[in-house]
Amino acid sequence: MAGPTRSKGCQGCLKRRIKCDEVHPECNNCRKRGQKCPGYERERKFVFFEATGPTQRSSTDVTPRKPKLRSSSESTKIVVQRQRAKGNPAHWHVPCDTRVSPSLVTGAWELQYRESFCAMLEGDCAPILHAYSQRTDSSWIHYLRSPHEDQQNALGWALRCVGSFRLGRMHEERQQSIVSREIYVRAVRELAHSLNNPSLILDDRTLAASCVLGTYEIINDDGQASWVTHAGGVGALIRLRGPRAHMSGFARTLFLSFRPWLVFGALLLGERCFLEEDQWAEVVPEVIELEAKSGRVSPLANLVEYAYQDIVRCPGYLVQTRKIKYASHSDESERKGLIERIISSQQRLEEFQNEISACVEFNQPSPYHYHPEFIGAMTVEAGNLMGEYTLKGINSAIALLQRLLVVLQNDGQRDAHADLDQTWATPAGTQLLTPESTTEKDHPLPDPLTDRGRASREDLLVRVALSMGMTAGTLPI
Predict the structure, then answer these.
(1) What is the C-alpha separation between 235 and 233, in angstroms, rounded?
(2) What is the DSSP letter of 275?
(3) Chain-centre distance of CA 7, in angstroms?
(4) How many CB atoms lie within 10 A of CB 82?
(5) Region of residue 412 (phi > 0: left; psi between -120 and 50: alpha; otherwise: beta)
(6) Compositional bias of type Polar residues: which residue ranges (predicted)?
């Protein structure tokens, strides 16, 4: 039996059944004959196929077949039908675009995952987006919607992870949420490869992937506070890059987006926040000057930046107070020096509190009672929300510092020591890790973001971000 032709010659030579020299774009045989070469692309033949599969014939229903000569086209049709009959009929239910162009389907899903993440930023997390987008060179939305040369990197897998989780939750498909965890494992593996690559470890895309995966841990409520560990990794990467790497560009957006969670995570773990180091405070005036030169002046944002310099010291104050509390022999000079630093930070925070309260009015029924020159390069709603949550964060920080002063000024009193432990008690009755229990790995840290009533994880994301990691709604005082 003659099988399907394997010749790669042009269609004219195939019809004449002569050997083609396969010269492109026209073969010499057609050129010598003075006719136009029909080309080398074969015409596709489409045959009808039923998904139910071939009809089963009984063993007795056998009739002798007469030998019959078939053309090459008929032989090709028979071979294709036999190959399809051997396969699983369900395989042929795969959409045509998936079989013909798999990359097209992959690109469509990639775009959908990115748009799902952008929808979260423009929807539930809009206050965060609008608070920073007008003050930075590149926002999250602008960066994610710009063309990228490689989608198979850590950032691409991180966006797939968050997008898959949100699509599954939106359509109430539990399987999609489970798939997001599998994608998360792949994203973490790709992130590890980037961190081990000297040319990628300090790249903005690597930091962006870390921030997106941290966001996934925050919105994925597993009750284990996995985001705290991840936030520590993001902080280590930011610290390695240095303060001057986050003064402008998309890196500035990444830094502003994740900075509150570095403070919040340090408080939960009972550790000092590296942002209290002098090198991070020294670049604040330069950043404000750059924003002024580019026409993105915002006095409210400037006050928030300066207030941050005392907010980031709060975890360190808590650590030093615990150290003095649990020390067998406390140093009097160390205790007095800590009291002076805490009082100084408290006074500065109270000054910022008074300035913001005097310029932003939140109790008015109309959202247009504001000072536009004070809000600056932000929308009205974003400026009001930023000022409101900033005041809540400053109030929480002042309340914490006052509790620490009570403990230090009543040096050695049992009631004051107990009061320090109750300072960070959550509604569920859990407490922050003490210096003694910090080293124990057997007991995972409970997630303080769980059991927050009707507040969604995205709402808590906004609350923590705009309150500088010190929100009273998350850390009861």
Answers:
(1) 5
(2) G
(3) 52
(4) 10
(5) left
(6) 423-437
Task: Judge whether 143 lies within some domain.
Answer: yes
Does 336 fall in a domain? yes
CA-CA distance, 433 to 456, in Å (whole number)?
26
Please list, in sequence order, all residues whose beta carbon lies within 8 angstroms of the beta carbon of residue 454, skipping any fewer than 6 positions away: none
* DSSP3 helix / strand / coil % (the chain, rounded to 5): 60, 0, 40
Half-sphere exposure of 182 (CA within 13 A, CB side): 5
Q: State the DSSP H helix or E strand holding residue 117, giving kind and residue range, or none if neither.
A: helix 102-122
- In the block, residue with structure tokens 């109270």: 350
User: What is the SS3 string spanning 153-180?
Assistant: CHHHHHHHHHHHHHHHHHCCCHHHHHHH
Asked whether residue 119 is assigned to any structural domain, the reply reads: yes
Token couple for 336 = 């007095």
Hey, CA dihedral for 82, 84, 86, 89, is it positive or negative? Answer: negative
Tokens representing residue 348 in the block: 């500065």
Taking CA atoms, 338 is separated from 4, 57, 332, in Å, by 88, 92, 10
The angle, 0 to 180 degrees and rounded to 10, between the axes of the packed helices 332-359 and 380-409 is 150
* Domain assignment present for 25: no
- 161-191, pLDDT tens digit by residue? 998 888 888 887 788 778 888 999 999 999 9
- HSE (side-chain half, CA atoms, 13 Å) at 154: 24
Its domain, for residue 281, covers 104-417+447-467
Helix H or strand E segment including 333: helix 332-359
Quick check: helix, strand or coil at residue 119?
A: helix
pLDDT at 461 over 50: yes
CA distances from 228 to 180, 196, 358 (A): 20, 22, 35
Tell me the residue ranges of DSSP E strands in 351-470.
none
For the chain, give the longest Cα–Cα distance: 110
pTM: 0.69
**For residues 304 and 391, what is the distance between their CA atoms, to the nearest angstrom?**
10
Q: How far is CA 179 from the centre of its chain?
A: 16
Given CA atoms 35, 38, 39, 40 in this order, what sign does their dihedral have? negative
**How far is Cα 67 from Cα 355, in angstroms, rounded to an integer?**
99
Domain count, the chain: 1
